[in-house]
């Protein structure tokens, strides 16, 4: 971290002393930054759809709007230490007479690990075909793929549920996992892989929106690199268990953008910080809209149901 900060400061001094003063803070393009936020939310949609499919496969009957509401609001839970709040929030929000909270909690683990495994697999595939000299990144991607992917295989998932003794408190959980087939996982992988590419494009949109000439020179054709950078940053941030992957994402993203993409340390640092802010703002706005719906009309229509009454 010290080296990164020093390198960024050195780059800034060189830029300020040069005749080509290409840091124009008044020229931020908010259209591109807004697009980055929208792309981030779109990139998360396949994961939300996959979670919905997993819930149905496990014998639950949520409405799609309920699933997506719980999914996006639940994202805010990752900023609480331990990340367990993501599970608590999603399971609590989707709980109804049609969705068991314990089964919902197990499904969250399946969705999250599948997302991380798919991202690692996409990163590894891109590195093999386009960046074969990045051996360290390839090894990291494959390791992360195994770490996150193996627990989602149906037989292993059922074994893990038994191992942590969830079935003692809720015997039907293991039975519900029998509906989780390789076909369901494969469909999820395909959709989530596309989602990771869209997340990479969100990074590209952030670069285009910055008032930095080097950042705005970022080309759409480099989407494989943007995808790898975002995937490894998010996954390693998740593995760190630090709330929101704060600092870890940036420590992964900055060297990739600075060295592999050749943007320079200062530009990479600014890009990483702005990317986090844009994504956080997008999550807050959407979560606010979903958390405070026009409750009356939704309850009577296609919206989410009333909370189950206590007997």
Mean residue pLDDT: 82
Instruction: Tell me the total number of β-strands.
Output: 0
Report the sheet with the most strands, covering strand number, pairing sense and barrel closure.
none
Q: Provide the domain count.
A: 1
Q: Calculate the terminal CA-CA distance, rounded to whole Å.
A: 55 Å
- Beta-sheet strand percentage? under 5%
Summarize this entry quickly.
It contains 15 helices and no strands. 44% of the residues are buried.
Task: List the defining traits of the structure above.
single chain, 311 residues, mainly alpha
Describe the structure.
The chain is mainly α. The chain has one domain (about 45-300). Helices cover about 75% and strands about 0% of the residues. It contains 15 helices and no strands. It has helices spanning about 1-15, 30-55, 65-75, 85-95, 100-130, 135-150, 155-165, 165-170, 170-175, 180-210, 215, 225-240, 250-260, 265-290, 295-300. The longest helix has 30 residues, at about 100-130. The protein is globular. Residues about 15-25 and about 295-310 have low confidence and may be disordered.
Reconstruct the topology from this structure.
Blueprint: H1 2-17, H2 30-57, H3 64-74, H4 84-94, H5 101-130, H6 135-149, H7 154-163, H8 166-169, H9 172-177, H10 182-209, H11 213-216, H12 223-240, H13 248-260, H14 265-291, H15 295-299
Helix pairs in contact: 1-14, 2-3, 2-5, 2-10, 2-14, 3-4, 3-14, 4-5, 5-6, 5-10, 5-12, 10-12, 10-14, 12-13, 13-14
